[in-house]
Amino acid sequence: MSSPIPAPYRVFLLYVEPASTLLGAFFAHCRQHQYLALTHARSAPANDSTLPAGTAVALSQLANLYVLFALNEVFVLRSTRDLRVWRALVWGLLLADLGHLYSLVPLGLDVYWKFWAWNSIDWGNVGFVYLGAATRMCFLYGIGLGHAEARGRDAIVKIQ
User: Fold this and answer.
1) What are the transmembrane regions (predicted)?
2) Is 20 exposed, middle or buried (0-12, 13-18, 19+ CB in 10 A)?
3) Other C-beta atoms within 10 Å of 55: how many?
4) Which residue among 18, 77, 100, 139 has its CA within the 20 to 30 Å range from the CA of 10?
């Protein structure tokens, strides 16, 4: 029996995004100074030894949430082909994308559109989040799903 979830969505949500998220978790936990310097160089501590303990803890907690995010996609979405479950999780991920983008406001509005000035973390925090959000919106709208009940506006609001 074939999956009702088209391959592009499966590849992105089950492999590409979890791998990318685990990479972010690695940097947030294991390369904390580099993570902060790439996020905002002017406010980053000089080195790991000057990193406040509270910042180190918060970054490790962030890494843990990145891991949870990846595990939800990998385990929950792989456990079912039920579009209702996929839609419910994808809705949550889309809301998380919007919150993630909002968290960047203190960096200035340029961060949202000056892609030529982005460093590697900006590509992850903005560019990749744009890609993820666009993928989720297409999925929720039913683009490419090919099922009458999965297409159109009803697919966006019908989570049940």
Assistant:
1) 12-29, 49-71, 83-103, 123-143
2) middle
3) 15
4) 100
Task: Compute the Cα dihedral for 58, 60, 61, 62 and give only its sign.
Answer: positive
Say if 40 falls within a structural domain: yes
pTM of the entire predicted model: 0.86
Domain that holds residue 118: 7-157
Total number of domains constituting the chain: 1
17: CB partners within 8 A, 6+ apart: 70, 73, 132
Q: Across all residues in the chain, what is the average pLDDT?
A: 90
Contact predicate 149/82, CB 8 Å: no
- Residue 71 CB neighbour total at 10 angstroms: 13
Distance CA 153, CA 17 (A): 25
pLDDT digits (tens, 9 = 90+) for 59-102: 999 999 999 999 999 999 999 999 999 999 999 999 999 999 99
